[in-house]
Each structure stands twice: as C-alpha cells, then as structure tokens.
C-alpha cells in the first residue's frame, strides 16, 4: 500500500528529529527544550519521508521556531 499527502509533525534541532506528535504536545516540548538548551534553535516542522530507495526522515516545511535570547523565549511563526 502506498500512502501520500499526509502531514505528521516533528520537533527538530539542526535537522535531526527529537520528538514527534501532535502540535500542542510539540509546542510544549519545544518550550521545555529551549529553556534547557538556550544555545540551540528548535523547530516544529512537517516530517518529510524519503522515497522507497532512500527511506529516511527529514525536516520538511518549518511551522514554528523556538529559541531563547537572554531570559526571553522567542517563538517565530514560520508560515507568515
């Protein structure tokens, strides 16, 4: 069976998948990770799967980015 055109979201750092799940869960986790690792930028993106020849998980279209600057949490909506 072949499945196409479905969206699954994941939490990524530098292109590597950290966690996956629904949007509300990932938004909460992104804030937690950003506070624990202030020097990293986390993004919620669509999970892009490779093809049959190269089945790997990649970061797709970014939806939101999270990072800390000084003591402030910066959240950027990437879809605007």
Please give a handful of descriptors for the protein shown.
single chain, 80 residues, alpha+beta, 1 helix, 5 strands, elongated
Task: Walk me through the topology.
Blueprint: E1 9-13, E2 16-21, H1 23-36, E3 42-49, E4 57-69, E5 72-77
Antiparallel strand pairs: 1-2, 1-3, 3-4, 4-5
Written overview of the protein:
The longest helix is centred in the middle third of the chain and has 14 residues, at 23-36. The mean pLDDT is 86. This protein has one helix spanning 23-36, and strands at residues 9-13, 16-21, 42-49, 57-69, 72-77. Strands 2-1-3-4-5 form a 5-stranded antiparallel beta sheet, covered by helices on one side. The chain is an alpha+beta fold and 80 residues long.
